[in-house]
Write a structure and sequence with these properties.
The chain contains four helices and twelve strands; from the N terminus they run ββββαββααβββββαβ. By secondary structure, it is an alpha+beta fold. The relative contact order is 0.22.
């Protein structure tokens, strides 16, 4: 077995930097359930492949499905990744030689996109501070027209952009919390648990009438671990492709290592 790894560091960028906001829909016809794929990165305007300035070869990313059977909500995977980093199994059938240090893992979840977002109030805060995404933006934009202490309902604003990824935390069910703290005049503060990870959320009580799968995260790949079998050997197909990648990509090749766990 082999795994893609993304580490965590107190000196790196916050996880919010790697979130897609809004989440990105899956390409037409792409089935990722238990089928990770390599995908050539393209220019969104021209549609032409993006070339690596070092190798002059197309940049490939890895498309990976995060299943709801292990992570019922998209936020569960995001918060676990924030705490523990990301590690996903590799399909040795993939041509790993195409991957470089510029490659990313693009992680999709079946409940990434709130299809009915236009009927929900904007999230209280977009942590990417994107315009027309959250209540904070609208309050600041129209503060001269508001009475002190008055809010603004931007639910049906024609300029509103979405669905903001940070709304995902607000539509989590209150009744699935392991602990709830009520606060008069405000939405409750709840704690949710997935595995060993516990995180906060503030549910608004709104109901989502439709979901779509989509990409949530684009994470840099910090290394590939080749898991040793009991006799100390590893998957030779995966290792051979990685060695070819080292030869053809030079300093831009992905680092890899062997480990017994």
């Amino acid at each position: 077995m082999s795994t893609w790894n993304v580490g965590v560091s107190p000196y790196g960028s916050s996880l919010e930097h790697f979130l897609f906001d809004p989440p990105l829909p899956l390409p037409d016809g792409v089935d990722l359930v238990n089928k990770p794929q390599l995908w050539a990165r393209t220019d969104p305007v021209s549609g032409e492949p993006i070339l690596d300035l070092e190798t002059n070869a197309p940049v490939y990313d890895v498309l990976i499905w995060v299943g709801a059977e292990h992570y019922p909500e998209a936020t569960d995977y995001i918060e676990e990744t924030r705490r523990l980093g990301a590690s996903r199994r590799i399909n040795p059938q993939l041509d790993l030689s195409k991957l470089t240090c510029r490659s990313r893992m693009l992680l999709a979840h079946p409940r990434a996109i709130i299809a009915s977002w236009q009927g929900l109030i904007p999230p209280q805060r977009c942590k990417k501070r994107l315009p027309y995404h959250d209540q904070v933006f609208y309050t600041e934009r129209y503060q001269d027209q508001l009475v002190v202490g008055e809010g603004i309902d931007a639910t049906h604003d024609d300029e509103r952009v979405g669905p903001c990824v940070f709304k995902l935390w607000e539509v989590l069910p209150k009744d699935e919390a392991i602990e709830t703290f009520e606060w008069e005049g405000h939405h409750p503060l709840c704690l949710r648990q997935i595995g060993s990870t516990i995180y906060e959320y503030t549910p608004t009580g709104e109901q989502v009438s439709g979901w779509q799968p989509g990409f949530l995260l684009g994470l840099p790949i910090t290394g590939i671990a080749l898991i040793e079998y009991r006799d100390g050997s590893v998957n030779t197909r995966a290792k051979d492709k990685l060695l070819i990648g080292v030869e053809q990509n030079g300093e831009m090749a992905l680092p890899f290592y062997q480990t017994d766990r």
